[in-house]
Amino acid sequence: KTVIADDKAFICNYVANGIEIFNINQGDFDNSIKTGYPVYKVEANQTGNKLIFYNTLNTYNTGIYAYDVQNTTTTDVNLGNNADVAIGDCKYNKFSNEFLITEFHPDFAKIIRLNADNLTLTGEITIPGKQFAKEMFISPDGKLYVCVDMNSSNLPTIYVYDANNYNDLVNFTVNDFTAYNADFAYYSAHFSNNPFDTTVSVLLTVQEK
Q1: Hey, which residues does 102 pair with through a beta bridge?
Q2: What's the pLDDT tens digit per position in 86-109?
């Protein structure tokens, strides 16, 4: 994944641990950002001055790094005891100016909230009776979609929240996977927004082991 901020493209390096910085105006690469863990994904806030680098799934105690574009500094985001297993997803919520992080946990489903300016913890969203939180999507009309029960032993459920105050609006379980008998590890979700009628579509697939 690539994010463009301050006339630079920040490109995840899948071979080495870190991010490559491509200067768009000069047409050449600048310095690399080295991290202690592999980072396969990057998320930016609305202004592009704060970037979050991270990895998802299959990596326990994974690293989450923040990069300040203006100061060119990298810090290890301290989630304390809030995240102790694999990260499911990370999204910037422009309606609350927060980075939202799901935790792919076998015992519960929750979303960790980080202030996008100073990267301090602002709270959590817990989903009672659920587990294995994974992909998220924030629609232009201010709705937060969260996928839970995304492991192979459950049927995936999608919760919809108000992205401004995180009030629970609706949720629904996808039952069409009951006939799928092949062995697989977990579900994957891919969201898209239709700008003509403001509908949101989600493509759910199975991820083989």
Answers
A1: 89, 111
A2: 888 999 999 999 999 998 889 999
Measure the CA angle with vertex 88, ends 87 and 91; round to 5°: 100
Environment class of 127 (CB within 10 Å of its CB; exposed 0-12, middle 13-18, buried 19+): buried
Q: What is the CA radius of gyration of the chain?
A: 17
Query: Element (H or E) spanning 119, and its range?
Result: none
Q: Are 50 and 68 in contact (CB under 8 A)?
A: yes
Reduce the DSSP state of residue 96 to 3 states and report it. coil
Contact 137, 194 (CB under 8 A): no
Sheet containing 18-23: which strands, arranged edge to edge? 2-5, 8-12, 18-23, 28-34
SS3 at position 44: strand
Q: Which residue has the tokens 């200067």?
A: 23
Nearest 5°: phi and psi at 178?
A: -65, -25
Structure token pair of residue 133? 């939180």
Give 149-204 as a DSSP string.
--BTTS--EEEEEETTT--EEEEEE--GGGG--S--SEEEEEEEE-TTT--EEEEE
How far apart are the C-alpha atoms of 68 and 10, rounded to whole Å? 12
User: pLDDT per residue over 168-179, tens digit each?
Assistant: 999 999 987 766
From the number of C-beta atoms within 10 Å of its C-beta (0-12, 13-18, 19+), residue 159 rates as buried
